Automatic annotation (TrEMBL):
Protein name: Myotubularin-related protein 9-like isoform X2
Myotubularin phosphatase domain residues: 124-482
Family, per entry: Belongs to the protein-tyrosine phosphatase family. Non-receptor class myotubularin subfamily.
Domain of life: Eukaryota
GO cellular component: cytoplasm
GO molecular function: protein phosphatase binding
PROSITE patterns associated with the record: PPASE_MYOTUBULARIN (PS51339)
PANTHER family: MYOTUBULARIN PHOSPHATASE DOMAIN-CONTAINING PROTEIN, MYOTUBULARIN-RELATED
Polar residues bias (residue ranges): 511-523
InterPro entries per the UniProt record, alphabetical: Myotubularin, Myotubularin-like_Pase_dom, PH-like_dom_sf, Prot-tyrosine_phosphatase-like
Any GO BP annotation: negative regulation of autophagy
Name of the gene encoding the protein in the UniProt record: LOC118895167
Region (Disordered): 503-523
Length: 523
């Protein structure tokens, strides 16, 4: 299929309305295979306005007289209005945008065509391979080993080729455990907490079913986890479903770990919303943030009614529970819901940020994203970023990256010229040759000119765990994301640059001052 087959009208005269704080832009509107661009007239700025079509979430069109209007709601929360000359041109452009923005083929997406100057294909994909972290853990403890039982993705298509597992568990046992877990997601190590010698694991639900089936190899795997930790260690299974939901899952083939079959492990239910309820909460919040004419009472009512901050609180609370079990009680933690993806990754990732100083560095955070979030669903990844923003706000010196990094990850996770967030599994990535045919996001974000916008100039390494407050008074609406297109206070880039300038001036001042030893007279 050629992109030209989907483009009904190549260009038209139009006016673009980008928001209340930005002047309208008028010029020639063009549709390409991957972009919508507007070229202003010669009397205006020579810069092109460019929009990646994959970022369009929905499109509305209406016509009146001899003109029409297209309203684009974008995945980065922008709402754009295009006033176009000509009814036929309006309808044809709308149909072109609808067709091109909804293409399902991964290999037709823009990252497979993006070739920026100064970057080479394959570069930076080696920065944060999951295997590097696993090898580091295997070196630090004799209780774990790197297994390549999933080399051909036959055990679990959503796991990488190599995973880290207890050293006493052989690959045959892993295969049987995988068959006992939904989607093949058997328990694997997510994080090794060196101070306590305990581990954080993730998996999917066991397929016990109404017959209460058991799997000896799965039981042995979790026993080996406890045996490899400190003497007398116990474990907690944090189930991100309610007890009732887990019970219902058993009737359809899923279930939970029976207490008698997994001695030393205790199950805790901490339900987290996912799927449609979370999506509806997100949609209601975005609608409330986009309403510029509501009263204060109406705004507060809608903010409370969407329950988004309640989801933030629940996610942080559950992550703290997992982190406290490792840090304070020296326990091993297994996290899972049903599939062992969305809410599971949310908890394991946040727990690592709470406990691990390395995960709070720029490189460590990128490694965490690469290792944990290859498979994600909207808006669960946004919820994760919001929780990280809450951590950064409560601990402004402890994260090496700032809000700019979180906003960049949000934007690129939905529509990006880079291939890092393409596909939902490592197997699919390999089939599409993502690592050899696209550029890594980190190759772009780690450029020196980008780092100044992404790093936290106030960062001071903190070797301790950071325990966030989840009280209602401590959680805030992330204005930098949800209000950035409608009520921008001061552009975040400008404010960030001022902080950088202050930090830079301070460094220069300290560097120019003579030390005490230098001022002492020499004998």
């Amino acid at each position: 299929m050629e992109f030209s087959e989907l483009i009904r009208t190549g260009q038209a005269q139009a006016e673009l309305l980008r928001g209340p704080e930005m002047p309208p832009l008028r010029g020639t509107l063009c549709v390409t295979g991957h972009h919508l661009l507007l070229s202003p007239g010669p009397q205006a700025t020579p810069d092109l306005w460019l929009l990646l079509l994959r970022s369009v979430d929905s499109i509305e069109k209406r016509v009146a007289g001899d003109a029409g209007t297209i309203t684009l709601r974008c995945k980065d929360l922008r709402v754009l209005q295009l006033d176009i000359e000509g009814v036929e041109a309006t309808l044809d452009i709308a149909r072109s945008i609808e067709a091109l923005s909804s293409l399902e083929s991964v290999i037709t997406s823009f990252p497979f065509f993006y070739r920026p100057k100064g970057l080479r294909l394959g570069e930076s994909w080696h920065f944060h391979p999951p295997e590097r972290y696993y090898k580091r853990v295997a070196r630090e403890t004799r209780a774990w080993r790197l297994s390549e039982a999933n080399e051909d993705f036959s055990l679990c298509p959503s796991y990488p080729r190599a995973v880290i597992v207890p050293r006493t568990v052989d690959d045959d046992a892993l295969a049987r455990s995988a068959r006992f877990r939904q989607g093949g997601r058997f328990p694997v190590l997510s994080y090794y907490h060196a101070p306590s010698g305990t581990v954080l694991l993730r998996s999917s639900q066991p397929l016990t079913g109404p017959q209460k089936r058991r799997c000896a190899e799965d039981e042995e795997l979790l026993q080996a986890v406890l045996a490899g930790a400190r003497p007398g260690a116990r474990g907690f299974i944090v189930d991100t479903r309610s007890a009732q939901a887990a019970k219902q899952a058993r009737m359809t083939g899923g279930g939970t770990e029976a207490k008698s079959a997994y001695p030393g492990w205790k199950r805790l239910h901490r339900p987290l919303e996912r799927g449609r309820p979370l999506q509806e909460s997100f949609v209601h919040l975005v609608e409330a943030c986009g309403d510029l004419e509501q009263s204060m009472d109406r705004w507060l009512s809608r903010l409370d009614g969407c329950h988004w901050l309640s989801h933030v609180k629940a996610a942080l609370s559950t992550a703290c529970l997992a982190a406290q079990g490792m840090e304070w009680e020296g326990a091993c933690i297994l996290v899972h819901g049903a599939e062992g993806t969305d809410s599971t990754l949310l908890v394991t990732s946040l727990a690592q940020l709470i406990l691990d100083p390395l995960s709070r560095t720029m490189a460590g955070f990128q490694e965490l994203i690469e290792r944990e979030w290859i498979q994600h669903e909207a808006p669960i990844f946004l919820l994760f970023l919001d929780c990280v923003w809450q951590l950064g706000r409560q601990f402004p010196l402890s994260l090496e990256f700032g809000e700019g990094m979180l906003l960049a990850l949000f934007d690129h996770s939905y529509a990006s010229p880079f291939g890092t967030f393409l596909c939902n599994s490592e197997k699919e990535r390999c089939l599409c040759e993502v690592r050899t045919r696209t550029h890594s996001l980190w190759s772009g974000l780690n450029q020196p000119k980008e780092q100044r916008k992404l790093r936290n100039p106030l960062y001071a390494p903190n070797p301790l765990a950071i325990w966030p407050s989840v009280e209602p008074q401590s959680l805030r609406l992330w204005q930098g994301l949800f209000l950035r297109w409608t009520h921008p206070p001061e552009p975040s880039e400008v404010a960030w640059e001022k902080v950088w300038q202050i930090a830079t001036d301070q460094e220069k001042t300290e560097g120019s001052q003579p030390t005490d030893s230098a001022s002492e007279p020499q004998p």
